[in-house]
Amino acid sequence: MIDEIGANSKELLGGDIQIDSGADPLPNRTIKELSSLGLVSKSVNFFTMLSDKNDSSIFIDLRAVDDYYPLYGELKTEPPKANEYLFSQGDMPGILINENIKNQLSLQTGDEVNLMGRKFIVAGSISSVPDLARSAVFGEFAIISKGEFESFELRSTNSFLRHNYRMKINTEQFAQNNAKVISMFTGSDNIRVKLPKDSAQNLRSIIDNFSNFLNLVSVSAMIIAGIGISNTLLSFINQRSVSVAIKKSLGFSSIVIKFIYFYEIIIILFATSITAYFIGVLSPLIANYMIPEVLGLALKPSFSVANYLNIAFIGLLIVLIFSIPSLYSINSIRAMDLFRNTFQPVNLYFSRRNIVYIVLLTFVLVTYFVLQTKQQAITLSYFFAFFSSLVVFYFVARALIFSLKRFKGFYSNSYKIAYRNIVSKKSLAPIITISLGIGLTLLLTLSFVANILNKEIAENIPAKSPDIFFVGINKNEKSKLEDFILDKDDQAELDFRPMVSASFVSLNSVPVESIVSDNNPSGWVVRGDRRISWLKKPRENSPIVKGDWWMNGDSDNMYLSLDYKVASDIGIKIGDKITLNILGREVEGSVMNFRNVEYRNFGTNFAIIINSAYAEKLPYEYVGTLKSKLETNEIQAQIIKEFPNISSIKIDRIISKVSEILNKIFIAVSSISLVVIVIGLIVIVSAILVQANLRKYNNLIYKILGVDFSTILKAMTIEFALIYLSLIAFSISVATMASYYLIDNIFALDWAFNLNLTLILVLSTGIVTFVLILVANKNMFNPAVYPLIRNE
Amino acid sequence: MSNEAIKFNDVSLIYGTSTNQTKVLKGIDFNINSDEIVSIVGPSGSGKTSIIMLAAGLEKASSGSICIHSNEITVLNENELSLIRRQHIGIVFQSFYLIPNLSALENVMLSLEANQKYNMEDQAVELLTNFGLSHRIDHLPSELSGGEQQRVAIARALINKPSIILADEPTGNLDEENSQHMMELLFDYTKKNKTSLVMVTHDSEMAHKCDRIIEIKDGKIA
């Protein structure tokens, strides 16, 4: 799944790696060196004029590509495969144009156009490009072959050229080759290297979060597996207590018996790990079969011996850590119990020696696992949280026992039976409380995180996004456009914002280039031209998180409001002085506040806002968005006809690729959530197993003593309810704190408590657990006394 | 209450399927009076324990009728049988069958609580003290000797003052001294409370101390 999503990120970038060399191409020697590390696709971007046969002109972003383009994904055209014409030896060179050029110049496939004094034939229109070129959607964009570009004989000193090299790195020694390419350009001032994760900021954070979520699930799965092993092994030893005692009476020492069982476990681990690995390797095929084809999720099985050994080693460490307290319970089974026919249910056994073993092995496991993850500090904190929760639930069990002892006067025979089962000296209530508590807490935590993550992804699959984005709306045309649209659809949602182009010059008189490094995630804000806007008061969807709004009316001074994240990344503080170049004039303004800016809905949002009193002196135009129930193509065609000077862009083009990826992540998170439920149930089942034998035996004794079925059932219900109710509050609290920490600090999303989800999970887990308890004790419904009396 | 505590009338018990049947009991008839002490003897596999289980309502007879204090129990359901056990019957096993994670006192209290008798801890302590276990009250079964465990098991059976005591080889796991002591406890109680005691035993000396002996051979009364 990660590979598939990674491949999509590569599509967004157009390669495994992208090198931007700016106005100058890379030297041939460098290109040769790059070619030895992978396939190199060269392209050049520049702005130029395109005119039709009527000499109507338009300023376009032109991309010249070689025949390797695109390295990943597909260039979709109308008619299909029109791009092949670019590299054919036709009478006239071909050009692919995007829909904006097509609409504005009313061009059709086969029409002639002029480009820098040469005639080109329109080979087709671009439906989508894999490497999400912003101008392909929001501007006027065209593609020609690199061969035709060469024929223009433009000098490399032309500063408007942008040379890009995208690479598909050789798969053999991919990591080394990738690192080598990066190192070739490290420290270079003019050359920038971009990786797939840099291709789209919004997706990057979601993919990172998905990766975080996978990390969380993998740690949880390990812990769950460990508790499951511990409980199952304890149940296994309880069932074999007579056999262990007989072995001891025959002269086997505890350590020999422990090794006998340990070897059994290792053999089982070996067999199950191989089986599980093959099931895991082949599971993508099943997933492909089950996931709707329309979502285009093509998962590929991948087998690696190294991967298997890695997983088997982690599995071995988990088995060792969690089986030690169970295996050491063998020490408490005595051969003398055979003579007295009194076998106590054994409990987890912690001696100084095995605590030392457990601590050492846990240290090895945590270190080994953490070193393999990217988010090492986070992974470490997951482990810490888990071990802390173990302690919390141990004390919950103790608190329950303490409280019940205070209420022993409660008169009901069912309650009394339940009470004795919980408070007795060798009660298994603490193990059950810890297992159930951890199981429920993990289930709640992961479900809270998955729910918020999925909600976030669902919100990013832009149902709320506008249908059309307008640019270049003249002040005089704004109200006419507004009236025209509302006349067609009076429910249409319109949002117009004034804007002006500006560039960032300095922060506190220090040139911006010396402050912001190349890899600063918010560097895009201070590089090149940026559109800024103004408001009289902050919007609800971008509230102030620091500082105060300015007093309206001061037209002499410029005040700035910045995106909080941008300010944090760049290191801007309230009160700092920022100099902007607005329409050729440098203006200094004071930073007054920071806002939480929402870019993800493709609406009109601005990283920089200035005070409207100052801004209204500037010449400006509007940008706007439209969301309408009308068919997008139809309303766009009518607007183009009525307002030929306004550029309108259908947003669905840009969101389709993003949506595709988000859908895939959404499915992944949903599928993993199901896995979480299954692993949660495993712990619960193991907790039930621990007490199954003792409970069966006790129920038979109760029956002999004349306790009827309904009383036993009520007692079991009360016992379960007391344990479950005691841990619910702590599980919800721990899960709430853990999910808040994860969502707020690591996933950087908005955390919200979901009461319905909590109730559903707590209730359904309780019901499922109790049903499993009844199933595990099904003999209670018709318990045969005969085997007990016969000592069978 | 009639003087007849237990009545078996032509009782048969068959285990297994229709093609592979084991006839454990074949038309057993006997009456046991309210203050009578009866021993059931016979070779292993003759069906002695099966009689105890049928009398306690823990096993269903294949045919015939069984009455406990004139109540026909073969027609009763599980809950009604539980009620009969709670009100009239105390059972003592050869292997004690104490609940391992409960103390001696808690095991005895369990029997009281099954009968919805609360705040009777003093009575349980007194009984255990009478049985010489005052210093073992809070001990788990695994911390008690065999004799002590059997005394706890007997205390558990007697604490509700049952009118019928069913004992399945109660001294089978005990030494001679403990066996003697155990029997004294049971005999004293039955005589003092005019209770019926039905005891399965292999010990002919013990059997001859009873008012009557029922000998079972091949599923029939010999």
Give the key terms.
heterodimer; A: 792 residues; alpha+beta; six-stranded mixed beta barrel; B: 222 residues; alpha/beta; Rossmann fold; four-stranded antiparallel sheet; globular
The chain-level structural class of chain B is alpha/beta
Spatial order of the strands forming the largest sheet of chain A:
2-3-8-5-7-6
Write down the overall geometry of chain A: elongated
Helix content bin of chain B: 25-40%
Stated plainly, the CATH topology of chain B is called Rossmann fold
Largest Cβ-defined interface: A-B, 41 and 47 residues
- With strands numbered from the N-terminus, the spatial order across the biggest sheet of chain B is 6-7-8-3-9-10
**Distance between the ends of chain B:** 30 Å
Q: At CATH's second level, what is the architecture of chain B?
A: 3-Layer(aba) Sandwich
Helix-strand layout with pairing:
The complex is a heterodimer of chains A (792) and B (222).
Chain A: H1 2-13, E1 17-22, H2 28-35, E2 38-52, E3 57-65, E4 76-78, E5 94-97, H3 99-105, E6 112-115, E7 118-128, H4 134-138, E8 141-145, H5 146-151, E9 162-169, H6 174-185, E10 192-194, H7 201-239, H8 241-249, H9 254-290, H10 305-327, H11 336-340, H12 352-372, H13 376-406, H14 413-423, H15 429-460, E11 468-473, H16 475-488, E12 493-507, E13 510-511, H17 523-526, E14 529-535, E15 544-547, E16 558-563, H18 564-570, E17 577-582, E18 585-595, E19 608-611, H19 612-615, E20 621-627, H20 632-642, E21 647-650, H21 652-704, H22 709-746, H23 755-776, H24 786-789
Parallel strand pairs in A: 3-8, 5-7, 14-19, 16-18
Antiparallel strand pairs in A: 1-9, 1-10, 2-3, 2-6, 2-9, 4-7, 5-8, 6-7, 11-20, 11-21, 12-13, 12-14, 12-17, 12-20, 15-18, 16-19, 17-18
Helix pairs in contact in A: 1-21, 7-10, 7-13, 7-15, 7-21, 9-10, 10-12, 12-13, 13-15, 13-22, 14-22, 15-21, 15-22, 15-23, 21-23, 22-23
Chain B: E1 4-16, E2 21-33, E3 37-41, H1 48-55, E4 63-68, E5 71-72, H2 78-88, E6 89-92, H3 104-114, H4 121-130, H5 146-158, E7 164-168, H6 176-193, E8 196-200, H7 204-208, E9 212-217, E10 220-221
Parallel strand pairs in B: 3-8, 3-9, 6-7, 7-8
Antiparallel strand pairs in B: 1-2, 1-4, 4-5, 9-10
Helix pairs in contact in B: 3-4, 3-5, 5-6
